[in-house]
Amino acid sequence: MEQRRLKSHSHWYHETQATLASRAEPLVPEAADIEDRFLLGLAALCEGGLRQTLQEAQPALLASRDLYSLLFPSSLTASLTHTLTLYDRLSTALTVAQVTGVQRLCNHYAARLNPLSGPDSSRESNRRLTQITEYARQLAMQPTLIDEPALQRLDEAGLTAPDIITFSQIIGFVCYQARVAAGVHALLALPVRWIPGVTVPPDADEYGFTDQHSWQPRLTPVELRYATHSQLEALTFCQPQQALSRSAWLLAHDGDALYGWGQLIKVLEEQTTTPEGQLAAAVAARINGSAACFNRYAPEALRSALKTGVDDAIGSASAVDRAVIQTAAQLTRSPERFSAAHLQPLKEAGFSLQRMMNVIFSTALAGWNNRLMQSLGS
């Protein structure tokens, strides 16, 4: 029998070598042109009290949209020190979106990626794309899988220190975006798509929270004598912030992203320093395995129980704290399954829409910070 090879795509996480002529259109091509590229159309569905709550959250939403524009511009020119192409950035974003399972993000990043030409078919290009895809998948799904050898593999694949910082910020941003979008989706009481066969990664092991040593970067931070004007400006703004005091010089390899990240943290400072915001951030850090973040956020009364495990803390917490822990845990573990039912404990505890939004933003922001601290230092 004559063997024939039909034209088709070999899907893994995204297409890598298909030609523009044979590439299939994304399922939702209009998702590439949506005006709000952070909430991806959810804000337009909000009415009444929820619309007012989102209006009050506009500074955070604007800062998030600015970060999106910075990380995913309409065009980009690579250089010797910044080798990540727009294709690299959007393919990474699509990988992370697929890991989170939030369909709006998958539609958007697939539609933006579709018109771009992928890398050439050389062995080096394939190896590089495989390494960054696998790293992005692991960091998005289970941050504790990332260790020093994983960073070394990125270096061997040709990523520079500025590349790795930008790459990490992209992964963290999309994880944050997915959880904020999932939270607003739940506040709207929209149905969620249940994906069968999805296994939720286990929480980080308890032993990772026993080491009391201070956080140390795995990459060489920016040196003062070589810092550019934009890097110094970002450092001046960000280093005084507690969340960035230890990581600012390392993150300054991408000064623009650091400045935008610092702006977002500054805007959300009031929400994240509330009792429910601190507890939600501690729950996210415990699940993701970031001891540096956990030690900063965990309330003294629940610190020991949370170290043992999130479920142990639920058993020993008050009704209000239990509601926050349950909500933050579900949003951290499975944003694609987060629904209105998971917000019900907060409603029963008397939380207003604004306080529920605080829990959502705090959980999402902490997940971004966890991934930076977990992957770039130890």
Automatic annotation (TrEMBL):
<dbReference type="InterPro" id="IPR029032">
    <property type="entry name" value="AhpD-like"/>
</dbReference>
<protein>
    <submittedName>
        <fullName>CMD domain-containing protein</fullName>
    </submittedName>
</protein>
